[in-house]
Amino acid sequence: MRTMSKGRAGQGRLTLTAVAVALTLAGCAGTDRMTTGSIGRSASAPIETMSSQQLASTAQSLGQAYVRNPKDLNVAMRYASVLQMTGKVDQSLAVMRKLAIDYPRERQVLAAYGKALASAGELEPALDAVRRAQTPEYPDWKLMSAEGAILDQLGKPSEARQLYRRALELQPGEASILSNFGMSYLLEGDLKAAESYMRQSSQAAGADSRVRQNLALVVGLQGRFQEAEEIASRELSPQQAEANVAYLRSMLAQQNSWSQLKNEDRKTN
Fold first, then answer.
1. Which region, left, alpha or beta, applies to residue 237 given φ > 0 means left and ψ of -120 to 50 means alpha?
2. What InterPro entries has UniProt attached to this entry (predicted)?
3. Which tops the pLDDT comparison, 36 or 141?
4. For the chain, what is the largest distance between any 2 Cα atoms, rounded to a whole number of angstroms?
5. Continuous H helices in 86-190
6. Overall pTM > 0.85
7. 28 membership: H or E segment, kind and range
């Protein structure tokens, strides 16, 4: 397996994460997926399918409901998710932190709180929250997968992959676990292994748009831009898919330019 040195791994992790975030945002920024309907209807639609306008409208609607009753578990958790999707990570974390105080033994709350902490870069507290949510006598595969994702971000891929394997034993063929497995290899720079898991994930039952967009990302990072655009266009409009691939091309071109500059610098020294 091809791996990076410790220094290069850090640089690769930052670059790949930036690309992944940019592609995700570009995927929900268009207006062609905007549908008419009341705010109430929009507020109950799948968050990952919403346009930026829908997300803003839903955040406002849920925010008003949250103010009326901040202890409403379903409203608070959905509000936190929408805030996170709109980039308001600190506000999302504040909502989840209060909810974790109100529901200290609720597994789904602790799990979501852990994810919110991880998104805010507070990885060690995130790990603690997810582990507290887990119960050894009745292990939850979702929590195992979430813990693995946090360990990957902490630079502990071996421990993360052990958890993914255990999660797959509990939930064989689960798309989200396979996707996390793929992201684990992506963060390490092993694009071939990442693609293998991403393809399995995209073909699994229950695979959603984000899983297939991750596959498009991995394919694009290997320079197969036309194939990446074809995969992305199944989930996004042609314009959005083209914009994603154009961004990916520019990111990789910038990365290559920096590499060339470093090589030239070594030659002169």
1. beta
2. TMTC_O-mannosyltransferase, TPR-like_helical_dom_sf, TPR_2, TPR_rpt, UCP035836
3. 141
4. 65
5. 89-102, 107-119, 123-133, 141-153, 157-170, 175-188
6. no
7. none
